[in-house]
Amino acid sequence: MFIGNIKLIAPALYLCAAALVVLILGVIAARKPGKGLDYQLPTQYLAPALMFPGVVYALWAVLESLIEVCYTVDVLIGYELVRVPAVALFVTRGGHAQLTADPFGALFTLVAFAGTFIVMLVSLDYFDAAQPHKAEYYSLVMFATAAASLAACASDLIAIYLSIELLSLASYVLACFVKTDRRSGEAGLKYFLYGAACSAVGLYGMSILFGVTGGHTSLSAIARGLTTPAAYSGAAWVGIVFTLVGFGFKLALVPFQFWAPDVYQGAPTPITAFLSVVSKAAGLAVLVRFLTAAVFLFPPQNFSWYWILVVLTAGSMFFGNLVAIPQRNIKRMLAYSSIAQIGYLMIGVVSAVHAFPSLERLVPRLWNLPNVIVRTRAASWYYEPWDMVGLVVYIVAYMFMNLGAFAVVAGIGTRTRSDAIDDYAGLMQRSPFLAAALTVFLISLAGVPPTAGFVGKFLIFGGAIQHAGQNHPELAVLAVLGIINSIISAYYYLNVVRLMFFAPAEDRPSLRASLALNAVVAICLVGTLGLIAAAGPVVDFASLVVSGFLD
Amino acid sequence: MDPNSWILPIITFIPLVGVVIVMFIPKEKATPIKVVSLVVSLIPLALSVWLWAAYDRGGPQFPEGVQFGVRVPWIPSLGVNFAMGVDGLSVPLVFLTALLTTLSLLYSFIIAERPKEYFWMFLLLETGMLGVFVSLDFVLFFVFWEVSLVPMYFLIGIWGGPRREYAAIKFFLYTMVGSMAMLLAILAMYFSPEVLRLAGQHTFDMIAIAKAHPYAANATIAALVFWGLFLGFAIKVPMFPFHTWLPDAHVEAPTAGSVILAGILLKMGTYGFMRVLMTMLPQTFAHYWWIIAILSLIAIVYGALVAMAQWDFKKLIAYSSVNHMGYVTLGCAVAGSGLLAGEQSKIIALNGAQMQVFSHGLLTGALFILVGIIYERAHTRMLSDFGGLGAVMPIYAGMLSFCSFGSLGLPGMTGFIAELSVLTGTYNASPLVAGLALIGIVVTAAFMLWTVQRVLLGPVNPRWQNLPDADAREIISLAPLMALALIFGIVPSHILATFNAASQAIVGILH
């Protein structure tokens, strides 16, 4: 086996080590709360302090992989000389990589890391210093993030499954972390039961794919296996669809969304934020890689998995937005809203499928090239600037605006002891900064300029329209549905704004936000409002990342 | 770089600087907040006067070129630029925006509730509106278009009347439906092969798109794009049958908000007609002009009749806006039609439409202030409650009569020039349409005169015996509007020449 440039996944390794440090020191500190180690090096400060270098490291890894992706290396595995991309890691016989730390994976790693850093700062404000089991809490968050990072790079079914499961297991525990709250326990249990079922279905699908493609787990080998006559059977189709069930669960894509509202409402708010951003980013990266690396070559007559995705995309948008309207609890509302947000992102995913050439064009070349670079070499000729750029920009925008919204919700929830939307009435008088910030985040989620959400939606819809012009009218339909949904969503987002600004403030004390909360909200605010000014460099950078993915 | 090219970004973003300044003033200090806002708003006003003076009427007109142009790459890989520029179509609108904002801010000194938010939102609104009129890149245009939406939502929702929350969300959602349809249409134009062929890359540059005539060869897609854009602009105008948000928004908005709504925000819609629909999709416009003409006729007649039936003074003015904007869209429809009428008559119609835009901004803005003045004093707007105010408030009575006469199209004021031009142009193209539009003029005259009669004449209601007359602040807010309506009504040649250059360029595209 050829290990490859291990530096590229070093952020994840660093995070695992840091999580162990947090765990050990935290457990020692917890023996004497408020004194000794807990006083000198409190876990809740140690964790973000160790997380921050991780974010910087992840940023460095993105740049590094942008350079590395331009190269290939010839390696001797067994008695065979194969040429593999320099970003391939743990390459086995036949040139199959377990992990591909390309810029796309590195960027999703960065999103996961930055998101987790923000979540930690929110936790700092949400829990008080006497939070029980904080060592376990923070180390689990860090392990989950490391898993998300590995999932974003995984290019092998086993690697995908292991990293997604690690992320899920940590999330199950985190969802029910507030042991004294019955709702939190319910959330954890529900999440675990549904998660286990969907993960089993997904695993079953993977095993079918393993079988019909001739015993391969690597995505590139599966891509090749799917072009052989053996794969024209219905079994391969079943395998693909079952695998998608597993990914759909992580994304809370309709109809696998049923866990989300209860879990989002019951889990501690910082964990809800974590699940809605970091966990989804990982799921999205895996889905995109699975679709574009393994399944894109699947014969057109069996292309129906694509139509399933199109229908689920539309379904997620409508379901999420329509059910969000009557919600009275803001966390539940944001849960449904994030189901809809995944719908918008899925438009980007569905368009991304078309960034790759059709089977007929590809097959003649297919057999002459080394396995790993089949996809890449052929695809780069068809690259256009709108492809997948929207997806990358939107996930970054989504991180800022959704985490920002949850940060405000967490901050207000701890101070008013309520997550009811009605209790946001007159918030403008009680805390102008938080109210104004939440307004910006909600308007951004609705996709109104000049916010980051608008930039992301604009690019995603633009990409869809572009492919719609190339004989894919269903993408134009999706864009129109996305637009309609933006309008529906504006209604319930603005309902919160209406209460905060228009409703009279009852005589209640003004809310004091802590430094951590203000800092988090300010970071998210800068990201949400600043993205449009920096749109030029951002789009260029996203194009680089995407072309690295394709090239 | 040409120093002149900085003028438009400066005009546009000065109010945004004002927003930041106001945000740093403590909210208890109401007077400094108001004074600072007013002073800040004077800068774009002064610069826009200079802009109009320095503007060269014989110079290039969109889409051949623009004046005071500035162009900086923004998202180069996607063909997005920070591009601004003005021509005869936009220069008067920039001035009108700056003027009405300043006067509205002056009038708004009475605002006692949450003045800080009110004033910075108003300045933010000004940036959005100015940006729409000077943008020459569709992304920039769209961003400003939406930026002007959010502060107005808050202005209605916080400082509005009893049903403000309903009116605010209705306004927001209606406009958002339109702007989202517009966004899709913009993206479709961006990806059109014609633009790619002409510009060498996909671009949001409005000049390039206008020159390329997107989808000229594909009537189906062109029609889809056309109706998408049409929806966005028609909701904003608002044209019948998309006008239902307007009475609610106007009635519930605070006085200054109504002034800006009627004076500027509606004009963004007609500006879109002239700048985008007629120039970028001229063939499609010529193909469907009759639909727009019919909707305009309905707006003219129906708007006037509904206005006549109103007993709420403010709602009456709101419906009269539907009627007045009908002339604008009628002028556009005739000017962009495929009729064989001479080029000259189409130009006259379009000149009239632009004049109506300007005139309506002045006179209806003034009328809304006049309604606000009486409402502040009497706390009612019901016409049945008034009567005989002419004897109690002579100055007010004079101003109300003046603006009402202007609004019904009395010769000597801008409204007359506008309606005359539109009808002349229309008559040359289609006497039938012109004849039908005349009904609206008659009804408008009737309800305006009846309103003056109901408010000012007749026996004095004893409740209003002691109402104070208009004070200096109110007179100063109104005087510039009335003066301009009169000056441009008596000597219209200068402003018409400005409009004419733009009209020639637009009509020339089809011919």
What would you note in describing this structure?
The complex is a heterodimer of chains A (551) and B (511). With 551 residues, chain A is mainly α. Chain A has helices at residues 10-30, 36-40, 43-68, 103-126, 134-153, 157-175, 182-212, 219-225, 234-251, 260-266, 269-295, 304-324, 330-353, 359-366, 374-380, 389-416, 427-430, 432-446, 452-468, 473-501, 515-530, 535-550; strands at residues 72-77, 80-85, 88-92, 96-100. In chain A, strands 1-2 form a two-stranded antiparallel sheet. In chain A, strands 3-4 form a two-stranded antiparallel ribbon. In chain A, a hairpin with a 2-residue loop joins strand 1 (72-77) and strand 2. In chain A, helix 6 (157-175) packs antiparallel against helix 11 (269-295). Chain B has 511 residues and is mainly alpha-helical. Chain B has a domain at 287-511. In chain B, 74% of the residues lie in helices and 3% in strands. Chain B has helices at 7-23, 30-54, 91-107, 115-134, 138-147, 149-159, 164-190, 193-199, 206-212, 219-236, 245-252, 255-280, 282-308, 313-335, 343-378, 389-392, 394-408, 414-429, 431-456, 472-490, 493-510, and strands spanning 67-75, 80-86. In chain B, strands 1-2 form a two-stranded antiparallel sheet. The longest helix of chain B is centred in the last third of the chain and has 36 residues, at 343-378. Classes of the chains: A mainly alpha (551), B mainly alpha (511). The interface between A and B is medium-sized, with 32 and 34 residues.
How are the secondary structure elements laid out?
The complex is a heterodimer of chains A (551) and B (511).
Chain A: H1 10-30, H2 36-40, H3 43-68, E1 72-77, E2 80-85, E3 88-92, E4 96-100, H4 103-126, H5 134-153, H6 157-175, H7 182-212, H8 219-225, H9 234-251, H10 260-266, H11 269-295, H12 304-324, H13 330-353, H14 359-366, H15 374-380, H16 389-416, H17 427-430, H18 432-446, H19 452-468, H20 473-501, H21 515-530, H22 535-550
Helix pairs in contact in A: 1-3, 1-5, 3-4, 3-5, 4-5, 4-11, 4-16, 4-21, 4-22, 5-6, 5-11, 6-7, 6-11, 7-9, 7-10, 8-11, 9-11, 10-11, 10-13, 11-13, 11-16, 12-13, 12-20, 13-16, 13-19, 13-20, 16-18, 16-19, 16-21, 16-22, 18-20, 18-21, 19-20
Chain B: H1 7-23, H2 30-54, E1 67-75, E2 80-86, H3 91-107, H4 115-134, H5 138-147, H6 149-159, H7 164-190, H8 193-199, H9 206-212, H10 219-236, H11 245-252, H12 255-280, H13 282-308, H14 313-335, H15 343-378, H16 389-392, H17 394-408, H18 414-429, H19 431-456, H20 472-490, H21 493-510
Antiparallel strand pairs in B: 1-2
Helix pairs in contact in B: 1-2, 1-4, 2-3, 2-4, 3-4, 3-12, 3-15, 3-20, 4-5, 4-6, 5-7, 6-7, 7-10, 7-11, 8-9, 10-12, 11-12, 11-14, 12-14, 12-15, 12-21, 13-14, 13-19, 14-15, 14-18, 14-19, 15-17, 15-18, 15-20, 15-21, 17-19, 17-20, 18-19, 18-20
